[in-house]
Every structure is written in C-alpha cells, then in structure tokens.
Inverse folding.
C-alpha cells in the first residue's frame, strides 16, 4: 500500500514538472508585469506562468491548514 502511494505521488509530481517545463518552453516571449503602477523587469512568459503555478501549489495547502489549526486549538482548551 505504501509503495503504491509513493508511486502515485511521484507520478503526479513528474507530470506536473513535465507540464510546467513544456509550458515554459512554449511561452518564451518576454513580458513585463505591471501592478498598481509598479513594473517588473522583462522575463519570459513561461517563467511567470510556472511561478504562478508553484505559488498556487504551495499556498493552497497552507491556506487549507489555517482553519484546521483553529479547530484543534479550541478542542485542546
């Protein structure tokens, strides 16, 4: 059972990495981001897209864990 879970996790991670690398390769056009008047340096569109995907994949579990911590701290007190 543990081996199957590791295999599935590794396969999903490899597919996400493959998707991100193909996305970055196909979108090599330089872009400049602008937000509230502030401008960034020019960087490849693929890098911007991959960075947004990584930030989303990292922040989602962190945001989902916040309500769980509040519930567990209420139970302990």
């Amino acid at each position: 059972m543990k081996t199957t879970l590791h295999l599935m996790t590794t396969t999903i991670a490899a597919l996400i990495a493959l998707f991100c690398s193909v996305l970055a390769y196909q979108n090599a056009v330089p872009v400049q981001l602008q937000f509230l008047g502030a401008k960034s340096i020019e960087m490849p569109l693929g890098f911007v897209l991959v960075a947004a995907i990584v930030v989303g994949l990292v922040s989602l579990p962190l945001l989902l864990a916040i309500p769980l911590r509040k519930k567990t701290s209420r139970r302990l007190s």
The chain has one domain: 2-76. The CA atoms of residues 39 and 64 lie 31 Å apart. Residues 2-76 form one domain.
